[in-house]
Design brief:
Mean pLDDT: 96
Number of helices: 11
CATH superfamily: NADP-dependent oxidoreductase domain
Helix content: 25-40%
Order of helices and strands: EEEHEHEHHEHEHEHEHHEHH
Strand order of the largest sheet: 3-4-5-6-7-8-9-10
Low-confidence stretches: none
CATH topology: TIM Barrel
Bound molecules: NADP nicotinamide-adenine-dinucleotide phosphate
CATH class: Alpha Beta
Shape: globular
Number of strands: 10
Largest sheet: 8 strands, parallel
């Protein structure tokens, strides 16, 4: 099974990455990234809002593989959109990350009244070569349709919450039709489905853990995944998702697990976004 895909601008991106949300202490960040790299991960997903770009930059600088072998994603936070300081925010992220480019820069949320002008600034960043690809996160179909009206650059990625408890089928179909790769965040639903009966039964059937079944399910649907962990044994285990196939009838069965379950909190200052 392939371990990477090509985005709509031909940039290659690994299908598995390490998410580092809420990991902020340097020893934890360093241990997580080191364990992930040892286990074969080549993608790290951070964000300016995670307040750990400096620690991530430090961990990458001391890492056993060089920067060019890694795929580094970071994200623009809402405050920068509201004050219109996209270029400044991006530059500060680069400095904190100790790099002169990122592989993927994402608009983290479609801030109402801002995200269209933000995207025009994202285009400039892309054209400068300092982000190999640009994309969005938490965008619904209507937001993507808005971008289509104002820009010739199609987001390479839409990073959204997706897992067996929230399957996002319509949005994923739309993204596929429009050449936007979907990356699943919170792909473990922060643990919510790991004790679910069907996931345990499928885990036994495929001789993998429920977490591995859930992550593989995303990949088999054409998504990439960025599970988070600080525990080396979980980080290793979450990489063991490429050596089996879920049978079609089980993929069908898993559709019944959907319950539109949201695991990530909506930030307080985004309550005005009509989801
Ligand atoms: N774009 C956005 O707005 C957005 C929003 C949310 C998240 N994200 C990104 O997506 C990444 C992942 O999402 P997430 O952090 O929300 O949640 P997640 O990856 O679904 O779940 C993380 C939780 O699962 C546990 N875990 C990991 N592997 C496990 C395993 N094999 N068995 C049992 N438990 C396991 C972790 O604990 P241990 O540390 O103990 O393993 C942690 O508590 C984030 O880190 C971030 O990079 C993006």
């Amino acid at each position: 099974m392939k371990h990477s895909i090509y985005l709509n601008n031909d940039v290659e991106m690994p299908l598995l990455g390490l998410g580092v949300y809420s990991i902020t202490e340097q020893p934890d960040v360093t241990r997580s990234i080191r364990s992930a790299v040892q286990a074969g991960y080549r993608l790290i997903d951070t964000a300016s809002a995670y307040k750990n770009e400096e620690q991530v930059g430090e961990a990458i600088a001391g890492c056993s593989v060089n920067r060019k072998q890694l795929f580094l994603t970071t994200k623009l936070w809402n405050t920068a959109q509201r004050v219109g300081d996209i270029q400044g925010a991006f530059q500060r992220s680069l400095e904190r990350l100790q790099t002169d480019y990122v592989d993927l820069y994402l608009v983290q949320w479609p801030v109402p009244g801002c995200f269209q002008s933000t995207w025009k600034e994202m285009e400039k960043i892309y054209e400068s070569g300092r982000a190999r690809a640009i994309g969005v996160s938490n965008f619904e179909i209507r937001h993507l349709e808005e971008l289509k009206k104002i820009s010739g650059i199609v987001p390479a990625v839409n990073q959204i919450e997706c897992h067996p408890f929230w399957q996002r089928t319509e949005l994923i179909e739309y993204c596929k039709d429009n050449h936007i790769h979907v990356q699943a965040y919170s792909p473990l639903a922060r643990g919510a489905y790991l004790d679910e009966d069907m996931m345990c039964v499928l885990g036994i059937k495929y001789a993998h853990t429920p977490a591995q079944v859930g992550l593989h399910w995303c990949i088999q649907r054409g998504l990439s995944v960025i599970p988070r962990s600080t525990r080396p044994e979980h980080i290793r285990s979450n990489a063991g998702i490429f050596d089996f196939e879920i049978e079609e009838e089980d993929m069908e069965l898993m559709k019944t697990l959907n319950r539109d379950y949201r695991s990530a909190d909506i930030p307080e200052d985004l309550r005005d976004i009509p989801f």
